[in-house]
Amino acid sequence: MNNALLDKFRNICLKLGKNNKPTYVVMAIAAVKGICRPTFTMMDKKEEPKTKKYTAIREGLTEIIAIPVYWGLGEGSAKLANKFLPDELKAKGAKNCMLIGVCTAALFVIPGLCSLAIKPLMEKFYHNDKGALAKKFDEISTTPPDKSKPLNSQMYSPVKRPSLQTFVNSNQYGMKVGGV
Q: I need a labelling partner for 170 at 20 to 30 A (CA). Which of 83, 88, 110, 159 fits?
């Protein structure tokens, strides 16, 4: 029974290894990221609910955009390679061009599309929050400064610098090398 299970696993690995395309690997990673990242973001107990929701939606949208772009550029690059490469180079050349297409998608196309698409989508999801935030900033910018206080105290809070006494000699604390 153990050998049968091992043989099945071996056969699956061999088939995956022979038919492996860079596009499928990257799409699988994007799908897992599209599911896991928003899930883990929502499970974070230290973050505010609005922040968690915003981040989870943004991460999910990024992967929803990424999957078809990976597929389109990867497969399109492979078809282009098959069209122009000589017959003896078509098999390897198609996979190499597919990898180049996927890398181009990850480096340039997906960030560009996300910049164009996600901001308007997120504004639609958070229309009320954005309006309230914009109103708050308008109130701050139109409020006249208080003349009784110096300008610096209105704009900046004082910097709290650590004293030298808070730093300790590295020989007293920290990692000890060689058991000394």
A: 159
pTM (2 d.p.): 0.64
- CA atoms of 32 and 41, how far apart (whole Å): 14
Look at the block and give the residue holding tokens 């340039």.
Answer: 108
Over the stretch 9-40, which tens digit does the pLDDT of each residue have?
A: 998 888 877 878 889 899 999 999 999 999 99
How far lies 176's CA from each of 31, 167, 173, in Å? Answer: 45, 18, 8
Q: Where are the domains of the chain?
A: 22-129
Which tokens in the block code for residue 65?
């955009």
pLDDT tens per residue, range 45-75: 888 888 888 889 999 999 999 999 999 999 9
Residue pair 72/90 in contact by the 8 Å Cβ criterion: no
d(C-alpha 63, C-alpha 82), whole Å: 28
Residue 58 · residue 121 · CB < 8 Å:
no
